Amino acid sequence: MKNRMLRELYAARAFIDRNLNLSKRYWKWELVFLVYTIANSVTIGFIGRGVESVTGTSIDAQFYILYMLIGSILWGYLSILFEIISETVTWERWEETIEYTFMAPVHRATHLLSVCGYAIIYGIIRSSVILLVLSFFFNLDMSSANFASAVLILGIASFSFIGLGMCAAILPLISPEKGIQVVSIFQSLLLMFSGVYYEIHVLPQWMQAVARISPATYALQGMRASILHGAGMGDMVQYIVPLLFIGLFLVPFGIALFIRMERWAKQKGVLKRSG
Amino acid sequence: MIALESKNIVKYFQKKKETSWALNQVNLQIRQGEIFGLLGPNGSGKSTFIRIASTLLVPEKGNMSVFGYDVVKESQKVQRLINRVSVEASFFRMLSPMENLLFSAGLYGLSKKEAIKRINEICETIGLEKKRMHDRIKDFSRGMQQKVAIARAFLTNPPLMLLDEPTTGLDPRAKREVQQLVTDMNSRYGMTILLTTHDMDEAERLCQRVAVIHKGEIMVTGTPEHLIQIQESKTANPTLEDVFLAYTGLTFSQVETEGVGV
After folding, report:
1. Distance (Å) from the alpha carbon of B201 to chain A's nearest alpha carbon
2. Residue B46's CB: how many other CB atoms inside 10 A?
């Protein structure tokens, strides 16, 4: 039992090391995406700054800029988490290593969870860099922010997004040609429904109903409550409970579904098509 | 002891409404410690057989076991006992051999310290230069990449090694080196080796027993000497190549060009 645990731990480390090595070797691409995300966030910040002059009405511009940037940074973090996990299969298929990884004696949960572990570490570092750059452009007043609540929400939201990512990773597994495109559509719908740059009450009723089952909705609301209004742990319950519920359901569901679909892929021979 | 046993294995693939039969009632027994050759033209079902043994494909019917463990129901136990080299080296191309091998070693439960020790030993055995172990693998020749692939497979010291056309596309020198390694590993560690190939010289030189597979069916099984002996009544001074042609009904140019990629 101890040996088995140790073997799984070595395997988990191997996945994390491999992803780290890939990020290092593909650093130019990482830089491209980072610059793209920063430029996007800065643009969104300037949209916030320009609202007063465009509409001719007086608003708390600093508050609005921070509101928008929280959306942008959190979305950047959640999407990188989602992308790394959902591309677990796509990347390996592209490198043609998928069969070697899938025939190794590693529990699929270890495989997926260690990729998630790397995604969280990578996402936090990346978001910190973005925040640092944004602070040069905008005078972000976070004096009333409750960072403990924000970190708590971020941690719990990560858990839910891991589950979503695992479910999305199944698509490229069962459809080598179209899977990754469907993942992109799924991600863009998540952005539209979850109130990244607006409150969900501006959405039509049916869209609001969908927004209520998206973990991003609660993550964004909780993050804004803690940073913009300094909400304490007690006020976070309304966001934590649905996030926990979604995460507790999605993570084991994602792992179980992945294992089920892996078996299906092996049955149909779509793990690798030729050779 | 039987290292690998397949009983009535059936595998087909369905694309739209077309059914492509890959394996049809395949029965094979590979004994522990032998080098067994599975000979067949492209598309005969060799790779499909290897993939089922590697737990990468689930058969439609029949059973396959590795050292008594069922490849479908006890796949993780089987995975501990096998490793594989395929015709494509398949690596993370931007990573170095060392990074690729450490990743693979980790997946098989080796600590980093243990893995580095094993990597150094194997690289010395197969003649991989230490100074190139940190270069990107995409800059390696195909022969060198295949050597790293072999190092990856031997790293875990598997009781059953599945070699799926490991020498295809290699230059004569690289081919000889790989073949030498296969015999060394077999004699030194008693490793059971299943080798698929359509190179008859290679099969004759390396394998203690062979089976000819054609259109997903096993046509004949036996020692190369015995199969050649049977052929003597039909051909003058027959070789294993004559045996192969007799059972597949193909000329060698057809063998090289025919293929459906299963």
Report:
1. 22
2. 27
Give the pair of three-digit tokens for residue A241: 């409970």
**Which strand (E) or helix (H) includes residue B123?**
helix B112-126
A66–chain B nearest CA distance, Å:
39
**Which residues in chain B (25-64) have CB-CB distances under 8 A to chain A?**
47, 51, 54-58
Per-residue pLDDT tens for B65-122?
A: 999 999 999 999 999 999 999 988 899 999 999 999 999 999 999 999 999 999 998 8
User: CA A264 to CA A260: how far, in whole Å?
Assistant: 6
Q: What is the ipTM of this complex?
A: 0.90
CB A245 within 8 A of CB B231: no
Query: Per residue in B175-233, pLDDT tens?
Result: 888 898 899 889 988 999 999 998 899 999 999 999 999 999 999 999 999 999 999 98
Nearest to B107 among A21, A101, A272 (CB): A101
Q: Please name each of the domains of chain B with its CATH number.
A: 2-257 (3.40.50.300)
Residue A225 has a pLDDT of: 96
User: Which one of B52, B107, B112 would you mutate to disrupt binding with A, by most A Cβ within 10 Å of its Cβ?
Assistant: B107
Select the residue of B13, B95, B108 nearest A104 (Cβ to Cβ).
B108
